[in-house]
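task queued by scheduler; priority normal; single chain, no ligands, no partner chains; default sampling; output format set to C-alpha cells
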Amino acid sequence: MLYGVKKVRSAREAEALVPAYARRELSGAVPKDRLPKAGMAADEAYDLIHDELMLDGNARLNLATFVTTWMEPQAERLMTECFDKNIIDKDEYPAAARIEERCVNMVSKLFHAPENGVGASALGSSEAVMLAGMALKWKWKERRKKAKESTDRPNLVLGNNVQVVWEKFCRYWEVEPRYIKMAPGRYTINAEEVLKQVDENTIGVVGILGVTYTGAYEPIGEVHDALVGLKKKTGLEVPMHIDAASGGFVAPFLQPKLKWDFRLPLVKSINVSGHKYGLVYPGVGWVVWRDADELPDDLVFHVNYLGGDFPTFTLNFSRPGNQIIAQYYNFLRLGSDGYRRVQQASQDVATYLSSEIAKMGPFELLSDGRDIPVFAFRLKNARSWTVYDLSDKLRESGWLVPAYTMPPDVEDISVLRVVCREGFSRDLASNLLDDIERSMKTLGRKRPPARKKKRKKSALKC
C-alpha cells in the first residue's frame, strides 16, 4: 500500500469516481408503466428524461408545425419566472392580470375593434374557437327567442377545409355543420356557396384567415359583402366569425389594407393564436369580440373563492401565466415595426422556397406563401415515387415536411406543405432545396419491384 493514501474513501469520493452512465439508475431499465418504488437523484432523473427526448426531431427543422419554435433568451427567462403563476387567480397575481388585460386591448385594437378590448386569453385557438362558437350560438338563441321562434336546429356554415376544432365544436354543442365543399382549383369558401347554405337557423359563417391546408386567405370581404346584400334583401342578418389562428398576426403587418376584421360590420368575433405567428411558445390564444354586446352575460361566470370577485369566460381554469407574459414581452419588444420585419422575413423565405421548388419541374404550387408564409405543392404527374416517399426521404436529413391529402371532394390530391417561421433562415431554406434535389435523384433511381410471373402448374404424370 502506498503511504499517505486512505484505504477507505468517503461516499462522496466514491461517487466522484463512478462514470456518469455507470450509476445504478442509468445502467438498467426504469419502470415505464408504474411508479418506481424508490426515487432517484435529481440529476439522474434529468439525464434519463433528457436522453430519451433526444429521440424527438429537431423542432427548428419541423416545417409541419405552425407553432413557434424559437424565442429570445430574455423571453424564455421571463417565462421561467412565471411558471408558478396561476393566471386565473387575479387577486393573488394582479400584475399578471393587468398584463393579460393589456394584451386583450392590444389585440382588439390591432383588429380595429370600435371600442376597448372585449375578450379573453385561452390555451390556444382551439379553446378560443369554442368560446367564440358558444357566443354565436347564445346570441342566435337570443334573437330567436325575441322573435318567438324555435331554437331547436342551429347550424354553422363553414368550409370542409376547417381545422378539426370546428368539427368538435359542432358535435359537442349540437350545432349542425353545413360544410361548403372544396373543388379542384378552389380550396376556400366563396360567396356564392355561402349564400346557398345560410338560413334563419344559421348562427354564423366562419371565414379562415390562413387555411391550414394551403396557407391561403379565404375571400372574407367578398363573403361579407354577400351577407350584407342578403340582409338588405331579406332582413336576415348572419354574423361572421374569423378564424385568424394563423393569419391574425400576419395580415395586419404584411397586408394592412386587406379588410377582414372588425372594419367589416358583420364580423362579430375573431380568434388568433399567440403561439403561431404571435411568436410565443405554446400555448396561448386570444378571442376578441366587436363589443360587449356580442358576449352574452349568461356565458360569463363570477368566482370569489380566489380572494376577490372576478368574471371568467374560459373552458379551462387553472393554467400558467407565462405564455401571456411572453406575449406581452413580444408586443413591447417588437412593436408594429418589429412584427412587420419578422413576418416579412418569413414571407421572403417562403416565396423564395416556393419559386425555387416550382422551377424544379415535377411540382405544381397550390399556394406560394404570399398570404401567410406557408405554401403547398404537389406532383404534376404520376412518377415512380410519391409526395409521401419524398416526405419520408427528407426525414432522413432531419426535415419534417408533411405529406397529406386535401379535404373531402378533393382528397385525391396529395400535397406537401412548408411552414416558414422565425428561426427558419434563407440559408436553411437553401439546404432544404439541396436535400429535395438529392432525395428526388435517389428516389428516381429506385425501380418498383418487378412482379413475379406465376408459373402454370404442370399436370402430374404417373
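post-processing summary
- The first helix runs from residue 11 to 16.
- Residues 95 and 391 are 46 Å apart (CA to CA).
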